[in-house]
Structure formats: structure tokens, C-alpha cells
């Protein structure tokens, strides 16, 4: 192929590769979350990446355009399929399909990739990982309070200190009362209500002025893209913003402020009562300083029907260029009593919480949480190939190490010793095995400790000293190979 015909190597926008270090950190993080969820009695289940589009239903990010908001395609039988955009809608389908066989309430957790066909940007990906926990079949707000407490426990298990995070709680019924009061209570105004929800959901990022624009005619972002607004009147905008600013000095004060905002709305007052009950439950368990009622939390998806919550990081760090970084929300959820009921004749209450794994991982790496920044596993021991006609002998050494449970590999390239040593360094190998003709005649191998050698190299001034010292390199008989390598590994990795 000519140079002009070469394909450019590039990942699609909004998608990212993950390195071995990323994978290792993620696995440790997922293990800690799983342990926390299981402590609360949740059990794992896995659903497919792909669902029938009608199973996701009216809750698609953009229901009028099947391939906007979600990634969709038609099957050979002309059925529309979509990549899941969260883990909640697939759970609703799974519970409905297996309803009679499942214990109720049904407590499950799921972890996996989700996909959004949206405009990517800094920290905004089209593919990202979530870790959910849900209780299906429990109508009591005690289930919501428990989810909030579990969210707090999970963040602490991941290395966050109290004061570095907060679990914020609100209730969509309270907002429904406000929307009724400004004339948006009808079924025919569902689209306008959703626009209001998504505008409020951006409050922490855009501030009151930006949200006010989205509640009105619309807003143009920094790139010049225009987002159409909810077309509310100035008086209605003022009332919605007053709702988001109703936070009091404590949870009890916030509830009282919300009662005033909703006025005589029965639905709004019901939501305020539920918030008061959640506040009492978390206080009884000692979580009142970590689970806070905040009217600014609404969540952007339409299927929430009651309490909604967000896990927000409160600390600020600096990026590599010294600029301040604040992560904000790293998880959220709420009650979705109508979602499972779409598949069944009877109503099925449900509530759940989702951690944004990718975003939280970045935050944990910033604060050097031991969960994600723990000591890395060593790379494989590399057996160098000094004589090409002796590959079988070198392979025998590799096999002996592997059978002893030691990661090992044979150098499979065609370069000389210097390049092989550089390769071992790049593989983060703790040591290399060297056997030339002289060592073979004596029945020995040379073991070069690369970690100790690097330390010694820093202290040795001249090349002559280096050759004389031959730092961290020992000869052992071939039958002592495994034992000697184990000594190197235990010295550095315990």
C-alpha cells in the first residue's frame, strides 16, 4: 500500500483504550464495590449489551430518532435493537421476564459497559462502565434510605474520607408539585417536563444562569452548539430556580422549605413527607452528616418516580498542568416504580443506585487511593535467547517457572542481548534469565535482578565500576532456577 492509502490509526471519538495499569486498578475497584454491595445482601446478575429498542421504550435519550441518543440497528427480522444506555432498563426487562422465579424484594447488582450516542467531550464518553445495585419489589422509602447508606459505605471502602463526599437526596414528587403549580402537570406536557428535568440536572455544571437559559429559550455552549430550552415564562423559571435553592441549614430545615415551595400540591407534599422519613432513617443509623437532602438533585432520566440521589465528591485537586479539577457527581439513582410495570399488569416498585466506574476511577487515582494505586504486580520473568539453536532448552526453563506459578516468557524476537534487556525493562520484568554456552557447559544460569540492578546503577559512577560490580547478578545451578527466582520476587514483592 502506498503511504496515501494507509489507514489512520485512531480510536473513535468518545471511546478509549485501557492500559494494563487501568485494568488492574479497575479490577481492584470493582472488587471493593462488589464486597460492599454483597455486605448489604445484593447478588450479581448479568444482562446483555443489546436489548430490543422497545424494551428501552420511551425512556430512550431521544425517542423520536432511534439512532440518536442510543446506538441502534435492525436485526434480520427488521426488529430494532439498541446497545443499552444504562443498566436499569435491562434489569426491568430481566425481572419482568423472570418475575415468578425471583424472590421479592429482589436485590441484585450488575456491572458492565453502557453506551450513549451523544456528543463526546472532556470526561464525557460514549462508552463507560457502571456498577448498579437495585431493590425491586419494595415500596417503602426505607429501601431508598438503605441504598443511600450503602452508597456512602461504598465510597469509604474505596478510600474516600468523610467530608470528601456527600450523598444528596431529593424527591421527584416534590418537583412534580412545582411543575403542576406552573402549569406543566398534564400528560401532553411530558416532553417539556423532561426538558426542565435535564436543565436542572446541569445546575452544578452550568450554574443558575445557564440553567435559566435552558429553562427559557435555550442556550448556546462554548462550541457554538445550541440547545433548545423548555420555553418557560420568566415567572415559572423563577419558581423552578427557587425550588432548587430551597436547601436549609439541615435536613429538617430543607424539608420545611420544600413544603413551602410546593404549597398545596398533594403530590409535592407527599414527596416532602418521604424525604422527612428518609432523613429520620439515616439519622437513626448515624449517616445524617453524609446523606443530605438537596433540592438541586433531580436526575435527567424521565423514569424516576420518587426519591432520587447523587453521590458527589466535594474535594478539589489539580491536574497535570496545575489546573483545578472538581469531579462532582460520580454516581446516582432513584426510585422507578413504573419501569418494571411496563411489562406486567401489576405495579412493581423499584429503587437503585449506579456508580460511574470510569469517572470515579479517575478521582481515586487523583487522590492516590490505595484501592487503585496499590503496588502493581511484577511483569513476567524473561528468559533471554543467547543461542538460537538452543531455543528448546530456554523453553524448558520457561515451562519450569510457569509450572511453579511464576509468570514467565521466552523472548520471541530476533534482536541481540542489549535489545532483549531493553525489552525486559519495558515489560517491567523483575529479573531475566541468561544462559550462554559457558553457563550451559557448567550447568548454570545467570539471574539478573533488574530492580536491584537499577538501584545499584544510580550509585555507580563509571562504566568500569559497573563491570567490576556486576550488580544484582548471580549464578545458580539450573536445578535451583525456580528457587532463586522466588527469592528475587519475595525480596521485592513480599
UniProtKB/TrEMBL annotation:
Aminoacyl-transfer RNA synthetases class-II family profile domain ranges (all copies): 27-378
Organism encoding this protein: Microvirga makkahensis
TM segment ranges: none
Pfam families per the UniProt record, alphabetical: HGTP_anticodon, tRNA-synt_His
Family annotation (PANTHER family): HISTIDINE--TRNA LIGASE (PTHR11476:SF7), HISTIDYL-TRNA SYNTHETASE (PTHR11476)
Signal peptide: none
Lineage: Bacteria, Pseudomonadati, Pseudomonadota, Alphaproteobacteria, Hyphomicrobiales
Homology family: Belongs to the class-II aminoacyl-tRNA synthetase family.
GO molecular function: ATP binding; histidine-tRNA ligase activity
Catalytic function, reaction form: tRNA(His) + L-histidine + ATP = L-histidyl-tRNA(His) + AMP + diphosphate + H(+)
NCBIfam families in UniProt: hisS (TIGR00442)
First-tier enzyme category under EC: ligase
Assembly description: Homodimer.
GO CC aspect terms: cytoplasm
Keywords recorded for this protein, A-Z: Aminoacyl-tRNA synthetase, ATP-binding, Cytoplasm, Ligase, Nucleotide-binding, Protein biosynthesis
Protein name: Histidine--tRNA ligase
A GO BP entry: histidyl-tRNA aminoacylation
Xref: PROSITE patterns: AA_TRNA_LIGASE_II (PS50862)
Alphabetized InterPro entries for the sequence: aa-tRNA-synth_II, aa-tRNA-synth_II/BPL/LPL, Anticodon-bd, Anticodon-bd_dom_sf, His-tRNA-ligase, HisRS-like_core, HisRS/HisZ, HisRS_anticodon
Subcellular localization: Cytoplasm
Entry binding sites for L-histidine: 86-88, 116, 130, 134, 299, 303-304
EC id: 6.1.1.21
Amino acid at each position: 500500500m502506498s503511504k496515501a492509502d494507509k489507514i489512520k490509526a485512531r480510536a473513535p471519538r468518545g471511546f478509549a483504550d485501557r492500559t494494563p495499569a487501568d485494568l488492574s486498578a479497575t479490577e481492584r475497584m470493582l472488587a471493593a464495590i462488589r464486597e460492599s454491595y454483597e455486605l448489604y445482601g445484593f447478588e450479581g446478575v448479568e444482562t446483555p449489551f443489546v436489548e430490543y429498542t422497545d424494551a428501552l421504550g420511551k425512556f430512550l435519550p431521544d425517542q423520536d430518532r432511534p439512532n440518536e441518543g442510543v446506538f441502534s440497528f435492525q436485526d434480520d427480522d427488521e426488529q430494532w435493537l439498541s446497545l443499552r444506555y444504562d443498566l436499569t432498563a435491562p434489569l426491568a426487562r430481566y425481572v419482568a421476564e423472570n418475575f415468578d422465579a425471583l424472590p421479592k424484594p429482589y436485590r441484585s447488582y450488575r456491572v458492565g459497559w453502557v453506551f450513549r450516542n451523544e456528543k463526546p467531550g472532556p470526561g464525557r464518553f460514549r462508552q463507560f462502565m457502571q456498577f448498579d445495585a437495585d431493590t425491586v419489589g419494595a415500596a417503602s422509602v426505607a429501601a431508598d434510605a438503605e441504598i443511600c447508606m450503602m452508597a456512602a459505605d461504598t465510597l469509604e471502602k474505596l478510600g474516600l474520607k468523610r467530608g470528601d463526599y456527600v450523598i444528596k437526596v431529593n424527591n421527584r414528587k416534590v418537583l412534580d408539585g412545582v411543575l403542576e403549580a406552573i402549569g406543566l402537570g398534564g400528560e401532553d406536557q411530558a416532553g417539556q417536563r423532561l426538558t426542565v428535568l435535564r436543565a436542572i440536572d446541569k445546575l452544578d455544571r452550568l450554574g443558575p444562569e445557564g440553567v435559566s437559559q435552558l429553562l427559557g429559550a435555550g442556550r448556546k455552549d462554548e462550541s457554538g452548539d445550541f440547545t433548545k430550552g423548555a420555553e418557560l415564562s420568566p415567572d415559572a423559571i423563577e419558581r423552578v430556580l427557587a425550588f432548587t435553592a430551597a436547601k436549609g441549614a439541615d435536613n429538617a430545615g430543607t424539608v420545611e422549605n420544600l413544603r413551602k415551595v410546593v404549597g398545596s400540591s398533594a403530590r409535592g407534599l407527599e414527596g416532602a413527607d418521604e424525604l422527612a422519613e428518609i432523613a429520620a432513617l439515616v439519622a437513626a443509623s448515624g449517616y445524617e452528616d453524609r446523606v443530605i437532602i438537596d433540592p438541586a438533585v433531580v436526575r435527567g432520566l424521565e423514569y424516576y418516580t420518587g426519591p432520587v440521589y447523587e453521590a458527589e465528591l466535594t474535594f478539589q485537586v489539580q491536574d497535570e498542568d496545575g489546573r483545578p479539577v472538581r469531579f462532582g457527581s460520580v454516581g446516582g439513582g432513584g426510585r422507578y416504580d413504573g419501569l418494571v410495570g411496563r411489562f406486567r399488569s401489576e405495579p412493581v416498585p423499584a429503587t437503585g443506585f449506579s456508580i460511574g466506574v470510569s469517572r470515579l476511577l479517575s478521582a481515586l487515582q487523583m487522590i492516590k487511593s490505595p484501592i487503585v494505586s496499590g503496588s502493581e504486580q511484577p511483569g513476567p520473568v524473561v528468559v533471554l535467547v543467547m543461542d538460537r539453536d538452543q531455543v528448546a532448552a530456554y523453553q524448558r526453563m520457561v515451562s519450569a517457572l510457569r509450572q511453579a506459578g511464576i509468570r514467565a516468557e521466552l523472548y520471541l524476537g530476533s534482536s541481540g542481548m542489549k535489545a532483549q534487556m531493553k525489552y525486559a525493562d519495558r515489560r517491567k520484568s523483575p529479573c531475566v534469565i541468561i544462559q550462554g554456552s559457558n553457563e550451559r557447559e557448567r550447568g548454570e544460569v545467570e539471574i539478573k535482578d533488574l530492580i536491584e540492578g537499577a538501584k545499584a546503577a544510580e550509585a555507580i559512577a563509571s562504566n568500569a565500576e559497573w563491570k567490576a560490580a556486576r550488580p544484582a547478578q548471580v549464578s545458580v545451578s539450573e536445578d535451583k532456577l525456580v528457587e532463586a527466582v522466588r527469592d528475587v520476587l519475595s525480596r521485592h514483592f513480599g
